[in-house]
């Protein structure tokens, strides 16, 4: 599910609104002309250039637009600082298959596959801008289309966040009674994973928005605030696997989408694997709830759990028992008692993030 970031996002970033390359592309479209731009260094591009002239001029949007008025390709270096060739006749290997019908797009696809570099084709007839890299093909979208897509994603994230908060609120009182079942933990983790997957999708679209991304990006940040942290605390609370929570989180984030739909697959990284495990309630260590107590650092929470045990035991502990834990004086003991008492009775509105 998490996977590696697609390196082609960098191509979308380079061609996003507000960049010099996008300015050149938009001007070419506005003029109603076609264009072919190869982004590759000289040593890579020169073997497939049969004709044209070397330019070695500074890269500017205006220069790209003027040179695109010629019939053939413009070649720019990968740093987008120098225009290397103009009116370049690109001759890729004829053995490379192409699904494109137009000459310009067919050459773009073949060159992209042969060189493994970014090639941009602008259609004179449809004004469509297409990026090619290897066997990847992507048509740049209109700004209003991208904004609508982001808006839809943010609306879904908002609903998911409200659902996640509700699930966590329902979980809190059960943790004090040792009545949390694996299926409930899986449901919460699934909701968080759905949110993080959707976040990646929205982020990919934000890359394409370029200078138009600021407001939706702020909204996305607000919607995702605390989600990963809450998920990791939940893993700390309920994991049976002795591995660090960070490693388990990595496994969860690497789950393919089809496995995220299966509770048993989501619980497996936590070490909850057998039928018996799935049917028995799990005691909560209390990292998540104790982290909501003001001015209670993680180091103290860890000592508290190590010396007293699960959150229900911490809740029942006397003031004297709490005082014996290093780092907990009378003020912290009172804060722990007060905070856990509120969470046990369902008062979760004051929880940071959730």
What does this entry look like structurally?
The protein is an alpha+beta fold. Among the domains are: 9-140, YojJ-like (1, CATH 3.40.1700; 285-354, Orthogonal Bundle (DNA polymerase, domain 1), CATH 1.10.150.20. Helix content is 54%, strand content 12%. The protein has helices spanning 9-14, 20-30, 42-45, 61-67, 103-115, 143-175, 182-209, 214-224, 227-238, 245-253, 257-260, 263-267, 275-279, 287-290, 298-308, 311-316, 319-324, 330-344, and strands at 35-39, 49-58, 73-76, 82-90, 118-122, 129-133, 136-139. The protein has a seven-stranded mixed beta sheet, sandwiched between helices. A hairpin with a 2-residue loop joins strand 6 and strand 7 (136-139). Helix 6 packs antiparallel against helix 7. It is elongated, with a radius of gyration of 28 Å.
CATH superfamily of the domain at 9-140: DNA integrity scanning protein, DisA, N-terminal domain
Low-confidence stretches: none
Q: Could you name the CATH class of the domain at 9-140?
A: Alpha Beta
What is the topology, as strand order, of the major beta sheet?
A: 2-4-3-1-5-6-7
Task: Decide which structural class fits the backbone.
Answer: alpha+beta
Round the Cα radius of gyration to an integer and report it. Answer: 28 Å
CATH topology of the domain at 9-140: YojJ-like (1
